[in-house]
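Why this split exists: single-chain examples teach little about how molecules sit against one another. For that reason, every record in the complexes split bundles all components of an assembly together and asks for one structure covering all of them. Below is a record exactly as it appears in the raw files.
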Amino acid sequence: MLSIPKATITSCVALGLFLRWGVSLFPYSGEGKPPMFGDFEAQRHWMEITVNLPIHYWYYNSTVNNLNYWGLDYPPLSAYHSYGLGKILAKLLPPAVKLGTSRGFESPVLKFLMRLSVSASDLLLPAFIIFFTIFKKLKGQHSFPPWLYITLAVSAPPFILVDYGHFQYNCVSLGLTVWAVICLFTENISLGAVAFTLAVNHKQMSLYHSLAFFAYMTSTLIVKRVDLLTTFRVGTIIISTLGLLWLPFGDYWIFVMERVFPLKRGVFEDKVGSFWYALDRVTPIRGVYDDTEVAQLCAIVTLVSVLPSAINLFLRSGNPKSLQDDLLKTFLLSMFNTSLNCFLFSYHVHEKSIMLPCLAAVLLTPWYPKEMIWFITISSLSLYPLFHQERSHIALLCVTSFFVLVAQQGKIITASGIRSLFGIIFVASVGGYLFLIFGLHFITPPGKLPHLFPALIALYSFIHFVVFTIWFHYNQMVDGRKRTVNATTPTQQGRSTKKIK
Amino acid sequence: MTSSSNFSVASYWAAVFAVSCLKILLLNSYRSTDFEVHRNWLAITHSLPLEKWYYDETSEWTLDYPPFFAYFEWTLSQVAKYFDEGMLEIKNLNYATFETILFQKLSVIVADFLLAYAVLRCCQVSSVLFSVSGKRKSTSDDGIPLETLFVLIFCSGGLFIVDQIHFQYNGFLFGILLLSIAKMLEGKFYQSAFIFASLINFKHIFLYVAPAYGVYLLRKQCFPPNTHIRMGNLITSVISFGVVGATVLAASFGPFYQHIPQILKRLFPFQRGLSHAYWAPNVWAGYNTVDWILNLALKKGKSSVTTGLVGEASLSVLPQVLPLHTFVLTVVCMLPALITIWKRPTELNFVQGVIITGWTSFMFGYHVHEKAILNVLIPFALVSHHQPNLFFITLVSGTVCVFPLLFNPFEIVLKAVIAILHLSLTVRCTPLSKFRIYELLYMSGFVVVYLCENFLPIFLPRFPFLPLILVSDYCLIGIFYGFIKFYWQFCIISYDIPAKTNDNLISPPRKAMQLTPDVTDSSSNKMIKRKKQVNIPEPSTRVLRKRNK
């Protein structure tokens, strides 16, 4: 299967590492900003807590573990991950994980070791490469060379920036998600299920993708194959994985749940391109209504918004006539649509959560190169205010321009004929962002609205995201219908396979 | 990014911008004292009158580049004042605000666009390098593929390490060198000489390759082969070259005419010792090693070569080497190459001559820096298609030999990533054939060398010089091997070939290129076009194969 030359893969890996380590040189979130610092301190603090306290106290508020100071709020696998890294850190740099006294510990060595730990846990980089190596020649893909997709995937800015710039370990859960997709479509359903369960248990944000996985797996196992034995096996495996992860907490699991799904943190955080933020600009929501009520409303709206895409996937994957190649595309489209809708409508959304639709977008580049390049570019630019705060906006601009220029090497953005219309749209859209970024730096907003430009960037992103969700819902529905028609008429199918050859 | 189906000039510039983005990413990386050196020069040229430039000693990093470089710094300082005036104060030693770093690093990146332009020019005229007889073909289609030159030169890992992280301005200087080579390949000798003379007035290290220029120009313009030498022609040529050289010298040194002795004193400091603190992998590194081992064996006391101080280190067992010795040795070793250029003044031999003179000076010169290996690697890229395997071995050793410049944790990772990135891209776009087993073994040894270089100091803190000796001697093996083999093939094989079969001698890359699937994949259209045009006669392919071995 590996017909892509080794040198090409090596160069893609090296390029990915170069971008990641280049961004690593920039400041992390909250660098040198006491008393609260940022996500970097949060991760270090979790190592400190997990290494020094017994497991029951990890998520439990106590005198030794003040949850108001960066208390653990990710699921158990994340905590175990912190524990493992913390153990290593305790060997290499003991003062960095000393209970209590290490708060706000900062040193160049620690920065290096923490960056190294992200790089060492990065499951996403290899997952991207394997994905594009395995699925390089599928139906309906554009004929760009595989190295272009791999290069684009390894240089997709949001993943690099958030993990290696801002500092988080999303590469673990996102990587596991891609591994799960690879397993599902190479007939390793149980393994895929385990990988995705682990992903959700590393970061609850991965639940955005869960509906697509759920729809595909139930429909394949129950409707299409009617294979109760496998269904039972997969179910057992998922439950035992969950059990293994949660049992160590014993009765304290309820505290873990409270931390992982916080209701008290508001409907959105900071300025984010979600529906509720946009609505909040029109009529105030946050702080006006009760958090629980808003959360319920969010849950209902989110559920309604993701159902069409999920049902479509359910029906299509239950249809024995649909081809596996097409199903991968529908699955990824559904993953994109559901996660984007979750981003737009769910409760307590961060601007960084845009990474989840981005993940599906990267995997979809072979089918929709132009649109997905556009989507990834604007997602990356939508993070600009965050990185501006952290003084690593130069890294963001560099990586994003690099990404666009690589895409341009494949003539993805501008091509001759009608397609150049896309070029104009792309330039106009990105130009809008550049204007807002320019404003952020050089135009002093009127006194009443000190955060005018970050807010405008969020709203501008919101408009883009809405357009994308509509456009790709349309694509998923129409494309699905067209394919089934193709599949039912043998002559047409023959013709299309010929074309591919 | 490098092997798209039609790597047009527009895509080329897009790729150049993309690589520049990567360079900007290194903004926050480590900077060596050379950063402060150049900041100080900005300050000197900006705030002192011209007469005092070469006298100021406020900082220990005095101005020791020729006047054109000083003018260049002055020009930069005119822009620098809009970033941060503080960096232009001579008294502000080790001044490094964010704006200062941004300005200085950006200035390197922007200056590198000259290198990008030069690469493009070289590619457009590179078709002559495929034919020994010097028949020029008009189509640029026949030259080295642009993506190859782009990867080998513009994305050079060594340049990344030395210019972007360590901090120097080599990129645009190599751009000037390549421009002058391009002019030479076009047959515009006076322009080439003019550009080259200017280059020497930017950085005098390029005097190393001057002999190749001198001999080739003399032969081509003053004593053209296969024609009778006419006295009138000879005299006008000599005078014209004299005028070109004098003009450049006057422009450069003219304003300093009263201070020339002081400038020369700064330009050629001989009190620095045979080898740099870290030994550049040349003959003297080997000589020092032998001395060190003998010293250990004979237990003669502490050797000063390994203490790591810059200065006149003295050898403890072997005889001392003086600047004069190295100079004579260098000239003697250059002679065969210069004679070859004289006998066969083809464009190809000229470029190879530039490489060999640079390489000889690197191998035998006095107080050579490891960075000088770039003087070999960059021009070598132009003729890499003749000996791709040899080029690759030299490239690996040459890239690793600049590794000790960077020693902080982040950069230890980055230098390896940069090297792997550049080497794998090189594999993608050069027509490598199978390596011999000992060559492969040697190259895999670099993994161990890298690990020793960076982790040995943790286990053996008492011998800080040991990893450095290891790197320098291990790289020496590859660089020396490359040197001997390249020199041998240049002199001997050039003689072997009967004059008649030379016409199509060097058309191998087209055939060999197809060995790398990636390139074939992409530029297949071009390939087909090329194949149609080329009819390789039987005897020449045989010669070729011999060469490729």
